Predict the structure of Type II toxin-antitoxin system ParD family antitoxin.
Amino acid sequence: MPMVTVSISPQQAAGIRAAVDTGGYASSSEVVREALRLWDTARKLNEFRDDVLDDEGAPSGGRCVADMFADHEAERRRSA
């Protein structure tokens, strides 16, 4: 697995240590990987929402949600 060095705030470091110390995670790497998975999911959800809704929050175009979701899933599979 590639190794990356990042700078985080003391509060973030304390939160990671607390998550490991309380037994929620086996290592700080697990905490960071989970955080990145959640961030990636939120980012993809926002992209999907942008595809589905117009600027006023109403469904965009005349397409049904099922078609838009199918397009989103197809794009996700192509990107994987």
Observations:
- The mean pLDDT is 85.
- The first helix runs from residue 10 to 21.
